[in-house]
Design a protein that fits this description.
With about 375 residues, this protein is an alpha/beta fold. The chain is about 40% helix and about 20% strand. The chain contains 16 helices and 13 strands. It has a seven-stranded parallel β-sheet. Helix 9 packs across helix 13. It is elongated and about 65 Å long. The relative contact order is 0.11.
């Protein structure tokens, strides 16, 4: 007889729809049946099929989830009384709080950001429930941030479970260079640096533009393509114009399933000053792209020695990294990149690591 597991996700806006899918794969072929709840967002049958198992859409708004969330907790309690979940995987703090509010429900709290436990009330809650809770970070950088905020919480109950990727599925959807460039409206000639992410201060495109401008004249046939949308678009376009590089920088806005077109790029650049993990890095690695990345958060854990690191908010170091990529001084094979992704960030590898976590075994044993 199969046992029941619950997964609670705050919502499915990118990247959390795929996060739900990733975690669902940990239960494939196991003795567990998974139920996934999306607290916010309208019903989405396509997403439900991708996640698999039983999927429930509570269809709350973010405003509905402010305060004590009594109605939400009542619904989860009713489900637990009916299904008797062995444990709950809860993503982000509101989901963790809701799961811990259900008496007797064991919880794996997944943390996707820094500073989750900076608030003292959150620290009090998790400390009071530590006997039925383990916390994981999506990178060791996040894990260490949790341990720092919760020095009295047992360190062995705070572990790393990496985000991951289905290498074969991504490879099958990534189109060839010529087709990708045609789709994105990028010339087939010349060198293309690619950057993907919302136009938000965390991505630090300001430094990326400054670094690119420093060496633009040394790379006459190079351009910078930025995929993403956000409130900084006008400001960044004005900066590019002021730097004299507006003709070589292309803001493409939102592109659905952008990873499908990564082979349009000759290399990939991540300039973030706040990066808990960096899923786009995995997608770029599967595409076989040389990478330059800001040395912060989870990025060094993802790329390892296969990329070119540069200091955060440092346009001079970034410009040198761009020049190294452009001149071919950084030579990494596609096989090397894919091997690293497969070795550390595949569904299969992380599934084995998750089920072998001593803290999880202890939690399930109730000791």
């Amino acid at each position: 007889m199969k046992k029941n597991i619950l997964q609670i996700c705050h919502g499915y806006s990118a990247p959390f729809g795929d996060v739900a899918r990733q975690w669902a794969r940990l239960f494939d072929g196991s003795d567990y049946e998974l139920t996934t709840i999306f607290l916010t967002g309208n019903k989405d049958e396509v997403l439900a099929r991708e996640v698999g198992g039983k999927v429930l859409f509570f269809e709350y708004t973010s405003r509905d989830l402010s305060g004590l969330k009594r109605g939400l907790v009542k619904r989860i309690k009713a489900l637990h009384l009916q299904e008797h979940y062995e444990f709950c995987v809860a993503h982000r703090y509101k989901s963790i709080y809701s799961a811990l509010s259900v008496k007797g429900l064991k919880v794996v709290g997944v943390n996707h950001a820094y500073g989750v436990y900076d608030k003292w009330l959150r620290r009090v809650l998790v400390m009071s429930q530590k006997s039925r809770l383990i916390l994981v970070g999506v990178s060791s950088a996040i894990r260490d941030d949790i341990r720092k905020a919760l020095p009295s919480f047992p360190a062995e109950q705070v572990q790393t479970v990496y985000n991951r990727i289905n290498v074969k599925a991504i490879q099958e959807t990534q189109v060839d260079r010529s087709s990708a460039r045609e789709f994105l409206g990028v010339s087939n000639n010349g060198y293309v640096f690619g950057a993907v992410g919302r136009l938000h201060p965390d991505k630090d495109y300001k430094t990326l533009l400054s670094g690119f401008a420093r060496v633009s004249e040394d790379m006459p046939d190079a351009c910078l393509v930025i995929i993403g949308q956000g409130g900084l678009e006008l400001r960044l376009k004005s900066q590019a114009e002021a730097l004299g590089i507006s003709g070589k920088v292309h803001f493409l806005g939102f592109v659905k399933d952008a990873y499908c077109y990564f082979k349009a790029f000759d290399s990939f650049v991540l300039s973030s000053d706040y990066e808990p993990f960096g899923m786009v890095l995995l997608e770029a690695m599967v595409a076989g792209l040389p990478i330059a990345y800001s040395n912060c958060g989870g990025s060094p854990e993802v790329v390892g020695s296969l990329g070119i690191p540069f200091s955060v908010n440092n346009p001079e170091e970034l410009s040198r990294a761009l020049l190294r990529l452009y001149t071919g001084q950084h030579s990494i094979s596609c096989d090397q990149l894919i091997q690293r992704v497969s070795r550390y960030f595949s569904d299969e590898v992380v599934r084995e690591e998750f089920w072998n976590l001593p803290a999880l075994k202890k939690l399930l044993a109730g000791t």
